[in-house]
């Protein structure tokens, strides 16, 4: 931690970035840290996300500061949040933006199976969210938590714990959330913006996916999918599928759940979820399909023709890779 603090203090030009398809923890952590470091003297802080920021996070203070282009220059410090390797950011090579890995700080809460080498790491896979790790860092640096910082970090904690319902909801998450509420942040407002403020096209899209849900006898998974055609027919956007996997994951007699979404450029995006009591590590399944994530929430992306064929192909791959499930 001290090494990270020294690096932050000695850096003037700082770039903060996160993974593609950013979730609430990714966006909240980037903005929370950016607000905090901007309060320090003489710091130029920039933020980057390769993917557009989903509408539901646009209420966060400072969101327009997140650019999807990086200035072609070398930063004194690059901070990578909520993921531990560069390929997830969409930036091909760290050397495009920093002179070496010594200028890289990674703050993440994913199991440390793969990280960039020779950089400074703050990694704690017990932490419910990257936002909690940022909060701890700011406390250690004695940076005053403003309402803006607080709104962003509380959003990170709230979304990564599934609104304080997932098994990663621990006393530290609740205590930190309480601290952030004391700064004036409101969980009801965050919930309204992110989970409870749907539009009709989004609900119709969820309806399509929910109506074709199946529990697969062999793989023991609850599975559904969304095609590009579905998105078009409903007048929805791909990001409207966010949160749907939590409903698919409520099927109690499935061991885990999978939602496949047909994305741009013939990509198929997979979201995997399970519950603690089901005894499955979905990150193993995700890794076998080229992705990764947490034990109970993981994802992957693969090339695919149309989504119906991908459902068949991925089901076979899962069956082959997880023989224990079929016994
Ligand atoms: P989601 O289903 O919400 O897109 O992703 C759930 C979790 O899976 C994310 O928090 C992230 O940890 C992980 N994840 C999602 N997509 C990918 C991917 O393409 N590669 C890797 N390594 N992890 C992913
Ligand atoms: Mn996270």
**CATH class categorisation of the largest domain:** Alpha Beta
Superfamily (CATH H level) name of the largest domain: inorganic pyrophosphatase (n-terminal core)
Low-confidence stretches: none
Tell me the span between the first and last alpha carbons.
46 Å
CATH architecture of the largest domain: Alpha-Beta Complex
How many discrete structural domains?
2
Number of strands: 12
How are strands sequenced across the largest beta sheet? 3-2-1-4-5-6
How confident overall, as mean pLDDT?
A: 93
Strand content: 15-25%
Rg result: 20 Å
Shape: globular
Order of helices and strands: HEHEEEEEHHHHHEEHHEEHEEHH
Q: Give the class from helix and strand content and strand pairing.
A: alpha/beta
Structure in a nutshell:
The protein has 327 residues and is α/β, with parallel strands linked by helices. It has 12 helices and 12 strands.
Describe the structure.
The protein is of the alpha/beta class. It has two domains: 2-194, Alpha-Beta Complex (inorganic pyrophosphatase (n-terminal core)), CATH 3.90.1640; 200-324, Diaminopimelate Epimerase, Chain A, domain 1, CATH 3.10.310. 36% of the residues lie in helices and 18% in strands. It has helices at residues 2-9, 24-38, 130-140, 147-160, 171-182, 187-194, 200-211, 228-234, 244-248, 282-288, 307-321, 323-326, and strands at residues 13-18, 44-48, 66-67, 77-81, 104-108, 120-123, 214-215, 221-226, 256-262, 267-273, 292-293, 297-303. A six-stranded parallel sheet has the order 3-2-1-4-5-6. Strand 1 (13-18), helix 2 and strand 2 form a beta-alpha-beta unit. Helix 3 runs antiparallel to helix 4 (147-160). It binds guanosine-5'-monophosphate (5GP) and manganese (II) ion (MN). Guanosine-5'-monophosphate binds next to strand 11 and strand 12. Manganese (II) ion binds at residues 25, 82, 109, 129-130, 160.
